Amino acid sequence: xxxxxxxxxxxxxxxxxxxxxxxxxxxxxxxxxxxxxxxxxxxxxxxxxxxxxxxxxxxxxxxxxxxxxxxxxxxxxxxxxxxxxxxxxxxxxxxxxxxxxxxxxxxxxxxxxxxxxxxxxxxxxxxxxxxxxxxxxxxxxxxxxxxxxxxxxxxxxxxxxxxxxxxxxxxxxxxxxxxxxxxxxxxxxxxxxxxxxxxxxx
Length: 202
Fold this sequence. Notes:
Blueprint: H1 2-24, E1 34-40, E2 43-48, E3 54-56, E4 60-68, E5 71-85, E6 89-110, E7 116-137, E8 140-145, E9 149-163, E10 168-180, E11 189-201
Antiparallel strand pairs: 1-4, 1-11, 2-3, 2-11, 4-5, 5-6, 6-7, 7-8, 7-9, 9-10, 10-11
């Protein structure tokens, strides 16, 4: 859990540092930093199942991003469950991961009245994951939980924002990525996520 806490603290420290730096160097022409909160993120993540076919795990996914012109930092939490067997004998698996993504926005576009913003980006991420296995047999259960393990990834995607005013807007994005870890099957695991949420100018 110390490693999880370190990632969260590191991410929010970066957010705070960006705000302090911006406060020290004001500029009338400088674009504001943008905080993006993604609460609805349908994800398709394909793992190999027991029969060696690819199975879509559909993780529960939440993300928080801070964009500073050409660069952004996004912290993403994902979780899914897999259950096999019956009421007498079953195995339940819970996968949880936390990844911090650094993204370079190689295209930023704004229409003349600034009601619509668009961006394309590529990025890389590092984080940790852990898994919990619950084995049930004839009413007795056993729980095994792994230590946090390292994972990484690369991504490419785009976002479109509809600005209600200069400080608030709705944002959606589509991203494809490859996730790497020693225990993943296949390695990398391929994933696509649709992100929907809102943004605030800071």
